[in-house]
Amino acid sequence: MPTVQETAYPRLKNHVSARDLNTIYTPQPHEIALAKKVTRGDVALLGFLTLLKTFQRLGYFTALGQVPNAITEHIAALTGTTAVLSELPGYDISGTRFRHIPIIRQFLHVQPYGKEARHVMLLALSEAARTKEDLADLINVAIEELVRKKYELPAFDTLVRAARHVRASVYHQFYRQVDDALSAVEKAGIESLFVAETETRFTPWNTLKQEPGSPTLTHLKDWLDRLAWLTKYQISDKALTGIPDVKVKHFAAEAKTLDAARMLEMELRKRIALAASLFKIQSALVRDDLAQMLIKRMATIHHKGSLFLCIIRVYAWAGQSTIPLNSDCNFILKRNKIALRFPYSPPNLDFFLLVFRLSDIL
C-alpha cells in the first residue's frame, strides 16, 4: 500500500515558510469580505478563513486542529482575531463549521465528493490501469482528474481502495480476454509446460524461462533450436491483441519469477495469461536476436565481398595507371593500412604480397 508521501495527495507542511504564508495562506480582500458577511463573531471569522485557505491548498476540508499554528496565527494577525486563537478548537465540532463548508464550495465552484465524482474517478482509473501498474501512479491520475473536474478530494484511503479495486478488475478483464481467445489445444499446450518430464524431472516451464546463451554466430544453432522448440507449442500471441505492451511485459516479468509449482497455485485464467505473455516475449526475443545474427552475417559477407572486389580491381590496376581504383577500394586499403606503390607489374613480388595481405583479411 502506498503512503501519502509517495503520491501527489496534498497535505500541509509541518513547518510553513514565510513565503508560503504570504502567497498561499493570506486571505484576499474579497475573501475577507465574504467571511464577514457569512459569519458572526471573531471565532467563526477566523475558522471560516482558515478553512477556506487550507481547502484552497488541499482540495479537501481538514480539521483546524491539524492545521499548523503558523497558519492560524498568520490569518488571525491579518484579521485582528488573535485574541480568540485559544477558542478555535471548538470550531471543529460546532455546527457553524458544517454550515460554512457548502458556502466555501459554492464560492470556489467545487462539487462535493459523491456518486458523480466517484464515477469520474473510476473512469480515469480504468483507463490509466491499462498502462500503469504502480498504485501511487494510479492515485495521482485520480487526483488530477478530480481536481480538473472541480471535485472535492476524498480521503486518501478511499483513493487507495479505488485504485486497487480498478487495477484488479482491469487485470481480470485481460485474463478473461486471453482465456477466451485461446483454443483448447493452445491451453493444453500451456498446461503441459508445468508437467515434469520423466527423463529429466524438469518441467518445460524451466526451459521457457531460461536463455539459450549469448546471441552470437557461434550460438546460432542453439537459437534456432530454441525457436523450433517455442514453435512446437503453437501458442498464438493473437490472444494478447489489445492488451498494451507494457502490461504484456509486466505479466511476462511476473511469470519469469515464478516456478512451475507457484504457477499451478494461481487461478487458471491468470496462469494462462501470464504464460502466454511470457511465450510472446521469449519468442520475440529469439526472433530479434536471430535477425541481429543474420544482419551480422550479411555484414561479414558484404565485407568479404568488398575485399574480393578490391583484389580484382588491384589486378586490373596493376601496371596501368590510367585505371583508377574506386573510392570503396581506396577506403578498404586505407582502413587495412595497405599502401599501393605504382607500378605493380605481375609477377612483381610486391604485387603478390599485396594480394596475400588482402586475402588474409578475408
The average pLDDT is 84
The 3D shape can be described as elongated
Uncertain parts: 342-349
Helical region count? 16
- Beta-strand segment tally: 0
Q: Which structural category do the helix and sheet elements fall into?
A: mainly alpha
Order of helices and strands: HHHHHHHHHHHHHHHH
Between the first and last Cα atoms, what is the distance in angstroms? 61 Å
Query: What is the share of helical residues?
Result: 55-70%
Give your account of this protein's structure.
64% of the residues lie in helices and 0% in strands. It is elongated and about 100 Å long.
Briefly say what this structure is.
This protein is mainly alpha-helical and 362 residues long. It has helices at 18-23, 29-38, 42-58, 69-79, 95-108, 115-128, 135-148, 156-181, 184-192, 204-209, 220-232, 245-256, 260-265, 268-317, 327-335, 349-361.
Feature tags:
mainly alpha; 16 helices; single chain; 362 residues
Please give the structural blueprint:
Elements: H1 18-23, H2 29-38, H3 42-58, H4 69-79, H5 95-108, H6 115-128, H7 135-148, H8 156-181, H9 184-192, H10 204-209, H11 220-232, H12 245-256, H13 260-265, H14 268-317, H15 327-335, H16 349-361
Helix pairs in contact: 3-5, 6-7, 6-8, 7-8, 8-14, 11-14, 12-14, 14-15, 14-16
